[in-house]
Structures are given as C-alpha cells and as structure tokens.
Amino acid sequence: MCLGIPGRIVEVHETQGLPMGVVDFGGVRREVCLAYVADQIKPGDYAIVHVGFAISKVDEAEARRTFAVLREMSQLDELEWMKELAP
Amino acid sequence: MRYLSEYRDPKVARALVAEIKRAATRRWVLMEVCGGQTHTIVKQGLDELLGDAVEMVHGPGCPVCVTPLEQIDKALALASRPDVIFTSFGDMLRVPGSDCDLLQVRARGGSVRIVYSPLDALELARKNPDKEVVFFAVGFETTAPANAMAVWRAKELGITNFSVLVSHVTVPPAMVALLDSPDNRVQGFLAAGHVCTIMGWTEYEPIAAKYRVPIVVTGFEPLDILEGMLLAVRQLEEGRYEVENQYVRVVRRDGNQPAQDLVSRVFELVDRNWRGIGPIPRSGLGVRAEFADFDAERRFSLDGIHTAEPTICRAGDVLRGVLKPFDCPAFGTLCTPEQPLGAPMVSSEGACAAYYNYGRFRSAV
Fold this sequence. Notes:
The structure holds two protein chains of two kinds. By secondary structure, chain A is α+β, with helices and mostly antiparallel strands. Helix content of chain A is 26%, strand content 40%. A five-stranded antiparallel β-sheet of chain A has the order 3-2-1-4-5, with no helix packed on it. The longest helix of chain A is centred in the C-terminal third of the chain and has 15 residues, at 60-74. Helix content of chain B is 39%, strand content 18%.
C-alpha cells in the first residue's frame, strides 16, 4: 500500500492553482501532484511518487554514497558498476 | 530504472547476508511493519537466507489487512446505494466483509471503481455532479497527505458531492501496543521508509529509548532491507537502542513538513480498531469537524453498522508475530487467496498471502 516508485520529473505546471507535473517512470509518463515537494524539485530531479503524489526528492548524492558503501562490502568491480549504471 | 535496479544486485545481497551472519552471535527477532517489505522479504527469501542469524516477524504493516470488518461493511453499504459511485484503491476490492466483497457488489450492479489516486476520485465527482462519489481512504501516514489533499481541494473547489470513508491508521501506536503485549518477542524494528518519508523519525526516538529496541528506518529494495537488518543486528550486538536511518536517499529526520501540515488541517488523531489487534487509543486519523461535509460516515449516517470480527481467522496472532501463517490450521485449506477468511490472505502485502503465493507451507529453519 505504501509503495512509492522513483520517477524523473519531466515538466512542472499548475492546474487550478495546484502544483502538478509530468513524471517519467522508466518510459511510462503520468501526471503527478507536486504540492508537497514544490519548493525543492525541478525538472530532471528524481522523486518518490505514491498514489499520484510526489512525497520526497531522491537525494542523488546520498543514493550514490549508500550504494558505494554497499559496493565496497562486496568489492564489486568498479568497471562493472559503471557499466550497470550507464543509461 | 534508476534508484531501483542498483538496489537489487545479487552479489551485494550475498555480501550483506554474509556480513549479517558474521555480526550475529545469536538469533535476533526483528519485525518489519510494512507490507511492501513483507512481500520483498518473503518473495526473495531474505529471511530464509539468514538462517539462525535473524528471525523476521511480519508486523501489522498492511493497511488493507488491519482495516476492521466494520469499515468494510460500511464500504459495502455505501457501494450498494444507487446514488453512489464508490471509489477505492484496487487492493480493497476483494477484502471480504460480513457477507460479500466490493467486487460482488459491483457484479450486482453497484458502481465500484478503482482509482490510482484520490485526486482521480475527486475528478470523477466533478464529472458526475448528479452522483455521490465516495472514496475509501485507507492507509498509513504515507497515504494520508494524498487523501487530505483530495478533501482540501473538494472544499476549495466547491465540489460538494465528494466524501471519504476513512480508515486511516498510524504506525507508532501499533508498535507500542505490540511492545506492551506480554507475549512480545520482537527485539528490533525495521521502520517503514515511506511512512517516515512523511513523518520523519522523531516519534520513534522515545520508543527506542523506553523499550530498548533498535529502530532502523528502512527502504524497500532487497539491499535496503538487508542493510536495515544489518544495522539493527549491529545495534543489538553492541547493546545500542537507537533510531537509525538506512533510507537516507529519501527520508529526512523531520519528514515532509508541508504534507504533515495539510494532514493535520484535515484530519485529527482518533481511536481506531485494528483488525486482529483490537482498539488502540489515538492510533488513527479521522476527519476534523470543519470538513464534516466530506466525511462519508457523517454524511450517510452509518452508525447502525457494527460488526464483530470472526473467530476462525487468526490474523491477530499472525500480525503480532505469535503465529507463522503456515501454523494456522486454516492456512492453505479453508483459507486461500481465492477464498480468504481474513485480510492478510487477500492483500498481496499480507503475510498469509505472501507465504501462500511463494510456497511457504512449512518452516525452512
């Protein structure tokens, strides 16, 4: 029920005074309410979206840092890691 | 997709499992309070991989599962009315009420529609001014801001044929109720990452200190969950009982302030009955008096509906972690996802359905 999916903000606009935007989920695009993240989000950012509402901006630096710690633990090959994250 | 696949790497998962096993000098009992995490743990077999390092108990983390039968019966009564379009998230449709479910009401001619967002239900109300549109507002703190916004917007835009049947619950009071119960076995918690995305984690700090339990705010991907377990195990081994944040890329200590603000404008703390657990004081949200016109229970006078929980379903013991789903006499025989006796078998996030769907018919360890 509390499922939240990370998506990339493509476009920001207002509908009858409500901050809205288009979010891309790996190719699927949807209109999402941005009211709760309006002051921190811009196109290109990633956000966690739950039942049509962006509830948090994904902190890319923290995301990288967390995974770096985990990766160190498994001593993953650096090149392999770069390859896997390449778009 | 970014921020998903990175956290599913099997090589890193194996390293984390090995690290947890190295860290644990005994078997620790941890509880997750999030149906999404329950689903991932059982689907990926994370608990089985950990063997005698960690026992996972699946807490009341599925709002569908803890919605009391009485609220389901109220939903069924509303959905049966010819003047009502009843809207809901998809996972509520097959939850059995006293004598049928919402799908059966639809088959009998009731207007029951699945929506992705409560704003979609509001839009339906705007497009159907001659109908009453009711939205079944269930969920934890994660979902409350979305549902609050639908009510707020209805008032702002003057949409008077929209209301919500509320069954909102909040996580910390349920954790306290579990910790207070005499048969509690839980020694540490994984707190649900998206609940904390909204609320932050300050509410958990007094709980961790008072009950001496580590509480780790944890994400939803396999590596998030394994790292959450590792942090909890390390705390237990070192005798620390703190709130720690594993899900740093998403959760901040104070949560989402604008979301909390709107939730507290529209809703207030109320006592709620949890299916399988019973009444917990101030453990849920109800519509404030200022928004009474948008509260389906006040609008349609549903006071006459009072339903007692059935006795054969032992959902309460499963949700409290006292009973594993496969130890319930009805599991897989009288109670299956096709013919569920209780909500944990209905929702894909329920512990019983997860065990059934992934073939857990006996203990692996």
